[in-house]
Design a protein that fits this description.
The chain is about 30% helix and about 25% strand. By secondary structure, the chain is α+β, with helices and mostly antiparallel strands. The chain has two domains: about 200 residues, no CATH class; about 120 residues, 60s Ribosomal Protein L30, Chain: A. A six-stranded antiparallel β-sheet has the order 1-4-8-7-6-5, sandwiched between helices. Strands 9-12-10-11 form a four-stranded mixed β-sheet. Strands 2-3 form a two-stranded antiparallel ribbon. Strand 6 and strand 7 form a beta hairpin. The termini are far apart.
């Protein structure tokens, strides 16, 4: 008996009680994000709170369509398959009341979309999803995975980091509704929060199911960036030493130039051939989403792809062109807004 008492006393010294949530964190979970609303295709689970929501009029997103492969700590972990969808992208995070299961909450979302004609593409639960699914799908240190609006205050930003940090009973489903104008996708990802390393925010989320909802609706991209003609390139170089191009487009997260870029490449080649004395840097730029090293590497590969396209398809001497990637290091607008991010994603021709 004495040994048991002593052991209990020692344990009490080294085991701290569970951290209580702060009033500010608790208050955030009492009402929706100001100005936010449910997506009409899905709705919400009764009693849930919408803590984060973003919408982009036209964007591209990759949605898992197969289980995760590899260990959580492995550098080569990946989803076995993904769907790349373009259109209007809406992402939202809901926190359900405590005492509910992930199965119940996510099943309500699933029933809602299937009642509207969506069919499952892929579904998984627990170990079926793969060990690294949680790390790949949403992670506090992966900026591209988070639902983070430009005007979120510190408490909400902390909650967005804490959400899905540690989950049990993980569930995921990808659903599709085909239509002549294009396919609509809904992805539903959820689990019950248990623990986490974000103090007050993790404490406030304890034992509550969370759901990440992603909806992609087909929509044509608006052609808002005018092509820069050969004459305009010359004028821009004379005035400011560089010409800026938004009409050179790349596949998402890749350095593959899209076919829509050909008219702009042709005008660049026309200018360079008409001015054989000019040597130029081809500079790639990105927004600040993702790590610096990754964005610099991506922008450098994209600049190199432009040089190769001008040389191989348009007969410009490659030795006249030097590719460089600056990633997010030379923005022309704020990266806090979607409009600013779109202005920062560009290619420039700079006279040497």
């Amino acid at each position: 008996m004495i040994r048991v008492v002593v052991a209990a006393a020692i344990a009490a010294i080294f085991v701290s009680p569970a951290k209580a949530a702060s009033p500010q964190a608790e208050a955030l979970l009492q009402k929706d994000l100001p100005g936010a609303s449910d997506h009409p295709l899905v709705g919400r689970y009764a009693g849930s709170v919408l803590i984060a929501r973003t919408q982009k009029a036209f964007d591209e997103i990759k949605l898992p369509s197969g289980k995760a492969e590899g260990k959580s700590y492995s550098s080569d972990k990946k989803f076995s398959s993904e769907v790349t969808a373009q259109g209007t992208v809406t992402r939202a995070i809901y926190i359900a009341p405590p005492g509910r299961s992930s199965l119940e909450v996510t099943a309500n979302f699933v029933d809602s979309v299937m009642a509207k004609g969506f069919q499952p593409v892929f579904r998984c639960a627990g170990d079926e999803c793969g060990e690294s699914f949680v790390v790949l799908k949403y992670r506090w240190n992966n900026a591209g995975s988070k639902v983070l609006g430009p005007n979120f205050d510190h408490i909400r930003r902390m909650m967005v980091d804490a959400v899905f940090d540690q989950l049990v009973d993980v569930r995921y489903g990808l659903f599709k509704k085909p239509a002549p104008e294009g396919d609509t996708y809904v992805a539903i990802y959820g689990g019950v929060h248990r623990g986490g390393g974000f103090g007050d925010s993790s404490a406030a989320l304890a034992d509550r199911p969370g759901v990440l909802l992603e909806v992609v609706e087909p929509r044509a991209m608006e052609k808002r960036m005018a092509m820069v003609t050969a004459d305009e390139i010359g004028g821009d170089l004379a005035k400011q030493g560089k010409a800026v191009f938004y009409g050179i487009l790349f596949d998402f997260d890749k350095a593959d130039i899209k076919a829509d870029s050909e008219p702009q490449l042709a005008e660049m080649a026309k200018f360079l051939k008409s001015n054989p004395q000019i040597k130029a840097f081809i500079i790639g730029h990105t927004d600040n989403k993702g790590s610096l090293d990754y964005n610099v590497s991506l922008s450098n590969r994209r600049a190199d792809a432009v040089v190769k396209a001008l040389a191989s398809r348009h007969g410009v001497e490659a030795k006249r062109l030097t590719p460089r990637g600056l990633g997010p290091l030379a923005p022309v607008a704020t990266n806090r807004t979607e409009d600013g991010q779109s202005k920062n994603r560009r290619v420039e021709l700079v006279e040497q």
